Amino acid sequence: MRREIGPLVLEIVEGDVTQADTDAIVNAANDHLWMGAGVAGAIKRAGGPEVEREAVAKGPIPVGTAVETTAGNLPHQYVIHGAVMGQDLTTDGDLIGRTTTSCLELADRLGLESVALPAFGTGVGGFPLDDCATIMVRAVVDFATHAQSLRRVALVPFGDAAFLVFRRAAKAALGT
């Protein structure tokens, strides 16, 4: 699914965020930026241990904020680490919204044209997928009017069921 929102194009793409054709990808991180399982584990496996070493050296960061690292062996310019949860590994709608916005703002400040984000907090964080999709789509829509360099945002949930939930959220926010 692809929709224009002002200067931005929002894409909903099912898959592995490490395979996204974007300038940067986003890691759904904890505030200490340790990379364990889920999306973080996939990024660490594909990008190599230097991604985690650089991330941890920049942590801890406040929950709701983001930092960038190199992408290691990945074909991207950066990995953006959005701290969507603390050490308790829980999150909420406010943190998901703030973290999504922080990642978009950082990508824009870095002068990037495209960024891919996974579903935040729905794995180990246990946050409901429907609510996550609605919050993340809304954050992209709200950010679109402020974008400077950023032209394409891909939301990349993993699995067909998650893709359908994100597509439904985008249609609800933007109309069919």
- The CATH architecture would be 3-Layer(aba) Sandwich
> What integer is the average pLDDT?
96
Class by SSE composition: alpha/beta
CATH structural fold name = Leucine Aminopeptidase, subunit E, domain 1
**In total, how many beta strands?**
7
Strand-residue fraction?
Answer: 15-25%
Main beta sheet, described? 7 strands, mixed
The number of domains is: 1
Low-confidence stretches: none
Number of helices: 5
Helix content bin: 25-40%
Q: What is the distance, rounded to the nearest whole angstrom, between the alpha carbons of the first and last residues?
A: 11 Å
Q: Numbering strands along the chain, what is their spatial order in the largest sheet? A: 1-2-7-6-3-5-4
Element-level helix/strand string: EEEHHEEHEHEH
CATH class placement: Alpha Beta
Rg for CA atoms: 14 Å
3D shape: globular
| The CATH homologous superfamily | Leucine Aminopeptidase, subunit E, domain 1
Description:
This protein is of the alpha/beta class. The chain has one domain (about 15-165): Leucine Aminopeptidase, subunit E, domain 1. It has helices spanning about 40-45, 50-60, 95-110, 130-145, 160-175; strands at about 1-5, 10, 25-30, 65-70, 80-85, 115, 150-155. It has a seven-stranded mixed beta sheet with strand order 1-2-7-6-3-5-4, sandwiched between helices. Strand 1 and strand 2 form a beta hairpin. The protein is globular and about 45 Å long. The N and C termini lie close together (about 10 Å). The mean pLDDT is about 95.
